[in-house]
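Lay summary

Proteins are chains of building blocks that fold into shapes. Our project writes down both the chain and a compact code for its shape. Here are two examples, one after the other.
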Amino acid sequence: MYNTVNSNEVLIVFIDVQEKLVKMLQNKSAAINAVKIAKAAHILNIPCVVTEQYPKGLGTTLPEINDVLPEACRIEKTFFSVYNEKTFSDLLKSNNKKQIVLLGIETHICVLQTAFDLIKAGYEVFVVQDASASRTEENNQAALRRLIHSGVQIITVEMLLFELLKTSKNQYFKEVQALIK
């Protein structure tokens, strides 16, 4: 099934966009794009989850994301797939969202494993390619290939934002569009 992202049915999950993980990336554009999505989610009032893998060692989520999403559910995790954390699975049950948008670090570990678990559980899963990254591009590309073959829809920041808006007549169009200019 290939649908566009529906603002009424979606939950956005920011996976481990943490200070030390971002510093390890050769290309920082995924972190910059994650911030754009956080700002758009705030403007559009889209529910979000922010995860952190071992924050004591890897640092906290980038302040640019935390500051703009104070209402987001925050989950400290030990599983690579956040789906296995009880807080997250309880949130999914209570939120009743059918579509999950994933982005973050690292694509080939936490994003991939979370996506696989969500697909198995019957969710429609989207991964934002230009807001997800791995330490090496080889791992990132391998993960994207596996995700495509598993039925995950690969999208970009612009695809996500314009699918959430649906129309240039959306009252937030200019404000969201300004994020990508």
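And here is the second example, written the same way.
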Amino acid sequence: MIDSYDLTLWLHVAVMGYWLGSDFVINALTHYFKNAKDLPVPQRMKLWDFLLLVDQHPRNALILSLPLGFQLAGDLDLSPIKGPALVALWIAAISWFAFIWVLHFQVGNPAYRPLSKMDLTLRYTLIVGLFLIGVGSVLGDGPMIAKWLGAKVALFALVIAGGLGIRHYIAQVYSVIPALKANGSTPEVEAVITHALNWGSYVLYVMWVMIFVIGYLGAAKPF
């Protein structure tokens, strides 16, 4: 019978596959949207909306990876987050998971902008906190017992930062959506879309490398 550690490990690997699979779909949709200059605007906007819907899945995976990773670390006695603290982390992650879906379905609603800023603040806080914990653990001063685990935590913080970078480029596309709807495809609009989605893809490629390294560190535990 599978024990709780093996089940958590399996879920952790499955979530990583879910994350990367969703990212591959998003990357393909991004290039299709960028090059669909002759597509009627209503159809192109449906493609954009679908792209943003699929983009929720890597966000799901990111949030789920956090408690799953700390659950594994706690089971191996490599992390101080155990017992009630781990339960609290799971509750916080599930709440955050529900929160991002509420925000997704309220995109464009001014009443929800303060909540969107809260989400951004949480991500910035996690980036700083996890990076400091990870680097400190690699140097031998942090709370994580194993240095490879500290490296994973630091890289995970950079992955979250990469997600914010992609969000920045998505915002650039949003800035020309009104012009696209009003005037259709123009060289000015397409220049912004092409620049933003190209650079968003570059950030995504770097994130893939970091995710693969995170997976390697967890499997090989090299140091």
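What can we say about the second shape? Residues 65 and 205 are 19 Å apart (CA to CA).
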